[in-house]
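Appendix B.2, paired examples.
Example (i):
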Amino acid sequence: MPVEVRVEHVTKVFGAITAVAGVTLEIQRGEFFTLLGPSGSGKTTLLRIIAGLEGPSSGRVFIGGIDATDLPPNRRPTSTVFQDLALFPHMSVGQNVEYGLRLRGVSPAARQARAQAMLRLTDLDGFYDRDPNTLSGGQRQRVALARALVVEPTVLLLDEPLTGLDEKLREQMQEELRNLQHKLGTTFVAVTHHQDGALSMSHRIAVLRDGHLEQVGGPVELYERPRTQFVASFVGAANLLRGTVESRDGHAVLLLGGEALRLPSPPPIAPGEPAVMVIRPERVRLGADSRARDNRVPVEVVSLVYKGAVLEYGLRLSQGQPLRAQVMGQDAGRDVRVGTRTEAGWDLRDTIVLPGGRGDGGG
């Protein structure tokens, strides 16, 4: 698939702060690509550099194979939906959507026809004459999307557009964005700190931390095969058990105090080196369900949180390390109560092993 956007060794420095540090990545034509990271990770700065709203301190940006590094925003084939939406309060919905077309000299009749078509596509048919101040949060999001898409950009840039919405509306808008991108085939590049939204919307995700690119991959790859402790702990919930790799009876094990946990073979970490075993909470089994698992450890149940379809247990291993388990169904953990001791278990196929240094921000 052709590359639509290429960011090449881009660095951005603000005084003593390096917001983006030598990032290189490629975004394919027609994909939904997300820049994911916590506050201060550099994701918004990188998006603004692609948009032309910031210039890189070094590095190049290519859009559609053309070097766009020095092009102003209005000469790039991009549109941006900002976090605050930036709708014009003195204009109707239709006038807001037509604004970019008017700047491009499109005739009034053609502007209105294209705006009406885009409003229909974004489920706002009949809203052309409405005052944007009377709209709900979700409707205002759709107006901002329609305004950005009506100029037919090659790349649509989304700067945390769903941040101000409540959880249910945000989930609904995530689905609508994904469906809209699929219909149009336009390349979408979004910025978010919501891991669930990134996983559900995106074809691929770039995880950033402190201006550095940690990992790029599809949702399944990032969740099932994280390359760093930071990615493991930031993309979804994760248990990070720290110990030392040893060899016992021909098997590699991770020593945690008095416990020896089996590691996949061949072990990715040399004997004697520190390592971290990553296990997703939903892969941990408790009580009788743990008995047939490759790894089993005695635990104390220290907390229980009811989350509707899921029960989340807070556990403590004998040497004090915490462990979380998520169990489906109200009755699944009936014999496991707070204050009791039981066993927790998981399989080798559900185990990820990473280097044990703390320098990557994991845990």
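Example (ii):
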Amino acid sequence: MDTDTAVTSLAALAQPHRLAVFRRLVELGPEGALAGELAEHLAIPANTLSFHLKSLQQAGLIVPEPRGRTIRYRADFAAMRGLVGFLTDNRCGGDASLCAPADTPAQASGCC
């Protein structure tokens, strides 16, 4: 992933409703959800949700699947992995073991 794509993805997620929608779609896995189901679960008005879904779609974080008069939305897990990879690339100076969870409080102060 390049910097411009990462910035676009992070900007899309930097809003509480969009972050909630994306997290819900990640939680639901490959099945995803219809817009109405998301609106009901997250208590977001349909027109507001539509705006947020469009932003997430333009950022490449979700994939719409039209089904007749409805659209099922799914998280794009490859895009999510790409963003996480971009954010964690070269963590702890390239020594990922320094960023591993600490077993003891003394180890927790080691790095990152």
